[in-house]
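R.M. (postdoc): so does anyone remember the format we settled on? I'll just put the structure tokens first.
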């Protein structure tokens, strides 16, 4: 479903963050990307929703080369890809409900009843339906991250990518968040998670790809291979 073919990325300052990376992630696969800080994990993830583009090589989703996606089609591409960051990046002056509703507004769904249904379905999946009227400051770190996940899935994306989603959480909460990603994966969502926490991701028994200084060093377990 997601194919990287000989992808390299040189930033404008000349730094080469990815070097000749090829990998394939199958539809409905759940896979992890690991490696030290600076290994290129974020850079790789950012290419999937076209936040960054390769300097060489190509990325395709569903056999569609991203290089051919026209600028005006990028919002539609991004609707199919839910993105989760380390810091959930919630808006503190909006309620949980409004935070989760935001991507729907951005993608043009203004119908209040349908939007409400979708937001509540997303909050229900992350177990936070009863917190919809709360403001983010009243939530724990784990709850905030779950709101971030609800926001990422509210458009029912086919792909979820997460960049160090448990970076600020203790081990028990981190495990909960990973199990939540697994639940989305079990209903067919393709999930790719960057994490440097080997203990946590090792316990998940999924494919692990290791990046080191921009190169794919190892790729173990799972369905895809290169
Ligand atoms: P990771 O997510 O594994 O920590 P990153 O993809 O964030 O790695 O970064 C890989 C390397 O690329 C780092 O050395 C980082 O400093 C560099 N880098 C990231 N973004 C930029 C940028 N916009 N311009 C220049 N260098 C960057």
């Amino acid at each position: 479903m997601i194919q990287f073919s000989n992808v390299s990325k040189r930033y404008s300052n000349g730094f080469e963050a990815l070097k000749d990376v090829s990998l394939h992630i199958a539809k409905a696969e759940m896979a992890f990307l690991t490696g030290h800080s600076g290994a290129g994990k974020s850079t790789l993830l950012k290419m999937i929703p076209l936040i960054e583009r390769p300097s060489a090589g190509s990325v395709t989703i569903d056999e569609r080369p991203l290089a051919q996606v026209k600028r005006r089609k990028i919002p539609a591409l991004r609707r199919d890809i839910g993105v989760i960051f380390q810091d959930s990046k919630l808006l503190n002056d909006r309620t949980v409900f409004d935070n989760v509703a935001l991507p729907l507004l951005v993608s043009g769904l203004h119908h209040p009843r349908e939007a409400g249904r979708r937001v509540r379905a997303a909050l229900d999946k992350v177990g936070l339906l009863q917190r919809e009227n709360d403001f983010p400051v009243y939530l724990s770190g784990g709850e905030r991250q779950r709101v971030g996940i609800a926001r990422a899935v509210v458009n029912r994306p086919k792909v979820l990518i997460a960049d160090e989603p448990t970076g600020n959480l203790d081990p028990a909460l981190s495990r909960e968040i990973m199990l939540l990603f697994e639940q989305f994966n079990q209903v067919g969502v393709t999930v790719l998670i960057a994490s440097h926490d080997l203990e946590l991701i090792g316990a998940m028994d999924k494919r692990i790809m290791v990046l080191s200084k921009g190169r794919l060093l190892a790729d173990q377990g799972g369905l895809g291979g290169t």
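R.M.: ...and that's the designed sequence above, right after the tokens. Also worth knowing: The chain has a mean pLDDT of 94. The pocket of adenosine-5'-diphosphate is lined by residues 11, 13, 15, 17, 35, 37-43 (CB under 6 Å).
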